[in-house]
Write a structure and sequence with these properties.
Layout lengths: L5 E3 L5 H12 L4 E5 L4 H8 L3 E4 L5 H14 L5 E4 L12 H23 L1 H5 L6 E6 L3 H4 L5 H21 L3 E8 L10 H9 L10 H11 L8 E4 L7
Parallel strand pairs: 1-2, 1-4, 2-3, 4-5, 5-6, 6-7
The protein binds NADPH dihydro-nicotinamide-adenine-dinucleotide phosphate and the ligand Nc1nc2c(c(=O)[nH]1)N=C([C@H](O)[C@@H](O)CO)CN2.
NADPH dihydro-nicotinamide-adenine-dinucleotide phosphate binds next to α1.
């Protein structure tokens, strides 16, 4: 019997893709969700990754993804809620729609997927299953320019403890709360210098530190309801 796959939402690029590739390298079957088709997906498919299209900006889109997930897998070893939209706050008429969109991708999608996929996680033949919420350091601190993003990440962080209590002892539910991990195209030298200065470690570590933290959770049978900081000591500066 083949091992149960690990689902990573938003796994077509950057941190999610890095973790998908590392999990495949460690011998895990992987399913990712993606929103936009692109050439990189063919490389992942060539490595055996199952790719499911998903747009979490509507409840119908989330439920449609869940239905196709259930057609694609009869069990899951883990779910990593990685999909995210780092949208700055909108002004005026767009403010409400922006908040609602971030609520759906950061909170409603993880909530509904966790509820509907519980049976898949419990069907895993391994003794432990995991749900991992990828949140953000700003969930605890707030953000002047990304208030809706930070608030919806805070909601995702709170759900970590609710689902951990609901799903124990069969399923562990934890969060990883990164600060700056990798830059975006267009980040200039001034931005990079300022961003580095915000943490005690003063580096841009790259996605490997996220995989190390995910590996730690997956390999440990005695962690649940926890939020693991991955922020270089942002709180110390
Ligand atoms: N990068 C960093 O330094 C930091 C990252 N984080 C968190 O880590 C995680 C990974 O970060 P990163 O790799 O930079 O993330 P990205 O900004 O690259 O987003 C990951 C994926 O989310 C998908 N996505 C966005 N909106 C939707 C939606 N409405 N429906 C479905 N999928 C959607 C995108 O899919 P597609 O591309 O196919 O449209 C994208 O590929 C995120 O949760 C992020 O908030 C936290 C702190 C720092
Ligand atoms: N979905 C995303 N969330 C976040 C991103 C990103 O690129 N995509 N980037 C950050 C920044 O690195 C921030 O941590 C810098 O202070 C935060 N979240």
């Amino acid at each position: 019997m083949s091992a149960a796959p690990i689902l990573i939402t938003g796994g077509a690029q950057r941190l999610g893709r890095h973790c998908a590739e590392r999990l495949v390298g460690d011998g895990h079957p992987v399913i990712i969700s993606y929103r936009r088709e692109r050439p990189e997906l063919e490389e992942l498919r060539g490595r055996g990754v199952v790719t499911l299209k998903a747009d979490f900006s509507t409840e119908a889109g989330i439920l449609d993804f869940i239905a196709r997930l259930k057609q694609s897998a009869d069990s899951l070893r883990a779910i990593v809620h990685n999909a995210s939209d780092w949208a700055p706050d909108s002004q005026g008429d767009e403010a409400g729609a922006n908040f609602e969109r971030l609520f759906r991708v950061h909170m409603l999608a993880p909530y509904l997927i966790n509820l509907h996929a519980r049976e898949l996680l419990e069907a895993c033949v391994e003794p432990q299953s995991d749900i991992v919420h990828i949140t953000d350091f700003v969930a605890q601190k707030g953000s002047r320019k990304h208030a809706a993003y930070a608030a919806t990440k805070a909601g995702l962080d709170n759900m970590t403890r609710s689902f951990a209590a609901m799903y124990a002892p069969r399923i562990q539910v934890n969060a990883i709360a990164p600060a700056l991990i990798m830059l975006n195209a267009g980040d200039n030298e001034d931005y990079v210098a300022k961003a580095k200065s915000k943490s005690a470690m003063q580096i841009v570590p790259g996605p490997g530190v996220v995989y190390q933290t995910l590996r730690y959770v997956l390999d440990n049978r005695y962690i649940t309801g926890a939020t693991l900081p991955l922020d270089g000591g942002r709180h110390l500066v």
